[in-house]
Write a structure and sequence with these properties.
Largest sheet of chain A: 7 strands, parallel
CATH architecture of the largest domain in chain A: 3-Layer(aba) Sandwich
Shape of chain A: globular
Structural class of chain A: alpha/beta
Oligomer: homodimer
CATH class of the largest domain in chain A: Alpha Beta
Number of domains of chain A: 2
Number of strands of chain A: 7
Helix content of chain A: 40-55%
Largest interface: A-B, 82 and 82 residues
Chain lengths: 306, 306
């Protein structure tokens, strides 16, 4: 692990790819690797891009990466597909992007897909971002398909979240749940040259008007990802958006989740509680599972807490 | 809670609806309610129905419910939408179904959608199923859209999972990830009267041929949900499918997850570990978060375990 850590810290992209496989798949050595690279990490600019299918997210992400690159920065693109046993979407997106950037070592592209990890994909993406920062990437774009709660959890690992909408969306966005408003730091009205753009902007403004006074109102940026129009302005808006949450709050949740997962591991094997026996009694109808959980948790509390 | 429990056990559907709101939203009293009704639960036939959008799942679920009802049974339909801040799909499905069954008290229809619960929607669905069984429903159909890992987790709460495909799917199912094979107890080839049905069946058979010898091979049932053809045979196949996993294994995972969640709650507030202080130190660059998690987990182990 030490050699791999050194390779990553030197910016060796093959070492980075190996490190990413380890943390994505929760292979042994991952925690050790993360601990070893953490001190040398430099916080990157993290841009989250999400939205319904078909609005041009991939093209927009491509343009953002090119713009960041033209400023001389190294850029990571994480295309995250938390799920979908039914489609191969993430793979397709990569192929298209690779054609554009394949000679450019300053753009590092990675797809991350769910493999049924315990705790979901968000912790693996979080660990992946840590490695990208350790490898010296100064900006990372995190793209998700925006169709699930898990996507929402993941895209919020970014400092700034752009929700992309377009006149081609079809459904009236008022059908969209309140979830959009909670995650959007800014709205991108892509394909702004198409009919329906003004009406869509009115609808977005109507949603924004529901935000209580005193809370920040997300700006709306118009873009045409195909031509590149509006992308420079979008990047400027991302850079000047206020921080999503205080960093200490992020770390507090991080610690609680990771410690919780460690403890859950021992509960099964080492705590002295006979889970197998209890499970068999429940299956036999001889034990109430909810009563068992309540009483066991209570007795652990009494035993463990000061 | 005791009165609400009694209402549910008497089959009062309004009490059931109230109980479901409590467990879905993790409101106080949920655990008490579940403990109170558990002893009187009778295991229901649980049928999971999943698949990509557009294959006719809702129509098929509707037909299954009608068939179960015609046999004199009370039926529950849970339409689960774990996510999607961007669409209102679950609501639409309900409206269509309600028109068909609204005069029939023997069919209870419920949509469950993610509200960002900690731990995801699967535990809430699990608790919901417990209440449906306590209310005396003898069969439950769990329908998910099949687009995410969370959907896979949820649909596996059913005893038997039917993966629905149709010639209208468009994408070659070879683009589908291995996830389908892991969850399918049987395949339903819906819209079997349409062109492309034979080719689709060949593709499904090709996937099935990859299953190692000794492991069960899912049958393929052809249906036309619109006409109802094949639905009686489908129900028979569901009833005769082997159990997904031993019941004790299900309860063991249940206990581990629920106990783990209790402990995670105390870690934040009562364990004597200063998570806030550690988070601030990490944000200031003065503490390595991965080292902190490792050392704290180790010291808890030493303190707590026998």
């Amino acid at each position: 692990m030490q050699r791999l850590a050194e390779g990553i810290l030197c910016g060796d992209l093959r070492a980075l790819a190996r490190g990413l496989s380890i943390v994505e798949n929760r292979l042994p050595g991952g925690a050790e690797l993360l601990a070893a690279v953490h001190p040398a990490r430099r916080k990157a600019l993290r841009i989250g891009v999400t939205g319904p299918p078909g609005v041009g997210k991939s093209t927009l992400v491509d343009r953002l990466a090119a713009e960041l690159r033209s400023a001389g920065e190294t850029v990571g693109v994480l295309a995250v597909d938390p799920s979908s046993p039914f489609t191969g979407g993430a793979v397709l997106g990569d192929r298209v992007r690779m054609q554009r950037h394949h000679r450019d070592d300053g753009v590092f592209i990675r797809s991350m897909a769910s493999r049924g990890q315990l705790g979901g994909l968000a912790p693996a993406v979080d660990d992946g971002l840590a490695l990208l920062e350790a490898a010296g990437l100064r900006s990372v774009v995190i793209e998700t398909a925006g169709v699930g709660q898990s996507e929402v959890d993941i895209v919020q690992l970014a400092g700034t979240v752009a929700v992309v909408l377009a006149p081609s969306m079809g459904d009236d966005i008022q059908a969209a749940k309140a979830g959009i408003m909670e995650i959007a730091d800014l709205f991108v009205l892509n394909k702004a040259d198409q009919p329906g753009a003004d009406e869509l902007e009115r609808q977005i403004l109507a949603m924004i008007s529901l935000i209580p006074d005193g809370q920040p109102r997300p700006p709306i940026l118009r873009t045409c990802a195909l031509s590149g129009e509006g992308v420079v302005e979008l990047l400027a808006a991302v850079r000047s958006a206020p921080a999503r949450q205080p960093e200490a709050l992020y770390w507090r949740r991080f610690l609680q989740e990771r410690l919780g997962r460690e403890v859950e591991d021992w509960l099964a094997s080492d705590s002295g509680i006979d889970l197998e026996g209890a499970a068999e009694q429940i299956a036999a109808g001889a034990l109430n599972p909810y009563v068992f959980v309540r009483e066991t948790a209570q007795s652990l509390r009494t035993r463990w807490l000061p």
